[in-house]
Amino acid sequence: MVVPVRKRLDRHEWAAAALDALAAGGLAAVAVEPIAARLGATKGSFYHHFRNRDALVDAALELWELRNTDAVIAATGDPADARAALRNLLGTVLGSVTAEPGDLARGHAVEMALQADGRHPAVAAALERVSHRRIEHLTALFADLGLAPDEAAHRALLAFTAYLGHVQLARATPDLLPRGAALDAYLDGMLAALTGAPRTP
């Protein structure tokens, strides 16, 4: 009888599989044995890389942050052209919500699952860290457009909450979301609203 050779997995593969589990079933779905079975790995492989399940959750959260915040910010434009960078950023994150599944779209599903599990200490810390990072980046882009610091922070928060609402709609009522040319027009209107004249006191 031929015994199948199990693949030797690295830490990244375990973290990516945990992210897939998070996207599909929330934090409760990050369980070592089902993930090991899905990967064709042993629990020994898991314990070679992680002390316990909490360490796997931490690694998954770090990977989500890297893919869905750091990599997105790095890939969406030169801050020297803040308006183009802002449009590219919004187009990337909003467009990916309705795109074919991929790392970024999976990350949106993870985000919604994490929002539901926001009282878990590790999840709360990750959401706080990621939200601050995103809002800081958006604030810097709006400031580069010439807005005063308070106004730039206000517009950044509006943009970030619009993104979260977009992701929530994608989960609950995806038919309401614009796609293709409609998304382009939506982005133009959103950018005009976000970068228009400052509010009157």
Describe the overall structure:
With 201 residues, the protein is mainly α. The chain has one domain: Tetracycline Repressor, domain 2 (Orthogonal Bundle). Helix content is 73%, strand content 0%. The chain contains 9 helices and no strands. The protein has helices spanning 11-25, 32-39, 43-49, 53-75, 82-97, 103-116, 121-144, 149-172, 180-195. Helix 1 (11-25) packs across helix 2, helix 4 runs parallel beside helix 7 (121-144) and helix 5 (82-97) runs antiparallel to helix 7 (121-144). It is elongated and about 60 Å long.
Which short descriptors sum up this protein?
elongated; Tetracycline Repressor, domain 2; transcription; 73% helix; disordered N terminus; Tet_transcr_reg_TetR-rel_C_sf; 201 residues; mainly alpha; 9 helices; Homeodomain-like_sf; single chain
In short:
Keywords: DNA-binding, Transcription, Transcription regulation. This protein is mainly alpha-helical and 201 residues long.
* Cα separation of the termini: 79 Å
Question: How much of the polypeptide forms β-strand, as a percent range?
Answer: under 5%
Q: Any idea of the CATH topology? A: Tetracycline Repressor, domain 2
Low-confidence stretches: 1-5
- Share of helix, binned: over 70%
What is the top-level CATH class?
Answer: Mainly Alpha
Radius of gyration: 19 Å
Bulk shape? elongated
Number of domains: 1
CATH superfamily: Tetracycline Repressor, domain 2
Number of helices: 9
CATH architecture: Orthogonal Bundle
Helix-strand topology string: HHHHHHHHH
Q: Count every beta strand, where a strand is a DSSP E run of 2 or more residues.
A: 0
